[in-house]
Write a structure and sequence with these properties.
heterodimer; A: 182 residues; mainly alpha; Arc Repressor Mutant, subunit A; 2 domains; B: 254 residues; alpha/beta; 6-stranded mixed beta sheet; 6 strands; 44% helix; 14% strand
């Protein structure tokens, strides 16, 4: 199908067309979502090479598994989930995660003070437990709703809220410490 | 160009969920990483194209295009065949179609030896040939000539017609004539004919084709001479009669 005609289709249509054999539909999906998925992969992994491999894995996986898309969530949510899972697979395979111990919550009395960024935010994010880091990437950095992030991560909305809250507290603590240590 | 990432700020953090740490504001203010690097776009595009080719070669799907258009294509093919029988047969019996048959008939030996010159012949009926004579030829030439070349042209959707005009209707270039073998069915004369047959191109129609790329993916670009003019088909190299896979077409050459 010609590109202008594909451009007028919504994401669900494109997935359906791809499943039914249209040779160009998935290319249009890739064109639409590649930048956002690249950003998610980059922020999830913190490494450009790893992110490139992850996002490639993810799009190929989406191509092959398009039949599994049931249409009960937005296509972009489905793609986010595939990208995040691809990143986690790569991270766990290439660099086994060493989760930090649960951090102390920040002092509520200092809550409104400006955050003193002494450590690169990305480094600090990388030190967070995986669940908290992913929740912050999706909700705070990419603007997903709690419900969308819950769908992407496959957890309850309450879990996302909790991870966001604890992740923010932990990140604030990391950024306040001169050495990056709480 | 795709839309750059544009985080929907504030969706994840409603007023009911205050963030006294200021981290949410800090994270949301970080600059976007920017668009996917072009080399990665190219890499993934190539991977997707390879997946698509493999999928079509394995015949796991039937393209929508062929399914959608099969009805009228089939009708057109049947109509052409009926016309050939109704009009061509009496003419053949009168013995008037011999010269034009030479232009439209399939001559593999000649094609292999001089595909370039054959291209022009195949697509342009010899001067003075009447419409009746053209139709005559179909009755006695059930398979129009298929001539393949290998120009290496990178065809694109926006300039397809003009590129085809330059490559496939221009003066033949011996250097472009392909003689190498290919494992892909549609990159061989007989395989391409079967593929086009399945897409509804009548068997008598002469074809000049180019092994090339279309929108960055490996493809065969075919120029078909029909009743009312020339049309372009772009097919996947894995296209077969059982699994026809058109990437574009028919596009009138104009």
């Amino acid at each position: 199908m010609d590109q202008p005609l594909l451009a007028g289709r919504d994401d669900r249509d494109l997935v359906r067309m791809h499943v039914e054999g249209d040779p160009d539909a998935f290319g249009e999906l890739f064109r639409r979502h590649r930048d956002r998925m690249w950003a998610v992969a980059l922020r999830t992994t913190g490494n450009r090479e790893l992110a490139a491999d992850c996002v490639q894995d993810a799009f190929i996986s989406a191509f092959r598994r398009a039949e599994s898309y049931r249409g009960d969530a937005a296509v972009t949510t489905w793609l986010h989930r595939i990208v995040v899972n691809a990143c986690l697979d790569r991270l766990r395979r290439d660099k086994p995660t060493r989760e930090l111990p649960e951090l102390e919550l920040a002092d509520k009395h200092d809550a409104h003070a400006a955050v003193d960024v002494r450590l690169d935010v990305r480094e600090a994010l990388a030190r967070l437990p995986e669940g908290q880091r992913l929740a912050l990437v999706l909700v705070d950095m990419h603007g997903l709703s709690v419900a969308e992030a819950a769908a992407v991560l496959g957890v309850a909305e309450g879990t996302v809220k909790s991870r966001c809250s604890r992740g923010r507290e932990a990140l604030a603590a990391l950024l306040r410490e001169p050495s990056g240590q709480p | 160009m795709s839309t750059p990432p544009s985080p929907r700020r504030g969706i994840g953090g409603s007023p009911e969920e205050p963030d006294p740490t200021g981290i949410r504001a800090l994270l949301s203010s970080l600059p976007d990483p920017g668009p996917m690097p072009p080399d990665l776009v190219e890499r993934i595009t190539a991977s997707i194209a390879a997946e698509q080719s493999a999928r079509q070669a394995q015949g796991t799907v039937t393209p929508l295009r062929s399914r959608r258009r099969w009805g009228w294509q089939q009708v057109a093919a049947v109509a052409a065949a009926a016309a050939a029988v109704a009009i061509g047969l009496p003419a053949v019996l009168r013995g008037t179609g011999v010269d034009v048959v030479a232009a439209f008939s399939s001559d593999r030996a000649e094609s292999a030896a001089g595909g370039g010159s054959a291209t022009g012949q195949a697509l342009v009926p010899s001067s003075g040939a009447s419409a009746t004579a053209s139709l005559d030829s179909r009755a006695s030439a059930p398979h129009g000539r298929v001539v393949l070349q290998d120009s290496g042209t990178a065809y694109s959707a926006g300039t397809l017609a003009s590129q085809v005009r330059d490559v496939l209707t221009g003066p033949p270039s011996p250097g472009r004539t392909q003689t190498g073998a290919s494992a892909w069915p549609a990159e061989q004369e007989q395989g391409l004919r079967s593929c086009l047959d399945a897409l509804g191109v009548a068997a008598w129609m002469p074809v000049s084709a180019d092994r090339a790329t279309y929108r960055g993916r490996r493809a065969v670009v075919a120029l078909v001479q029909g009743d009312t003019g020339q049309s372009i088909w772009v097919v996947d190299p894995g296209c077969t009669a059982q699994h026809p896979a058109a990437l574009a077409g028919p596009v009138p050459l104009g």
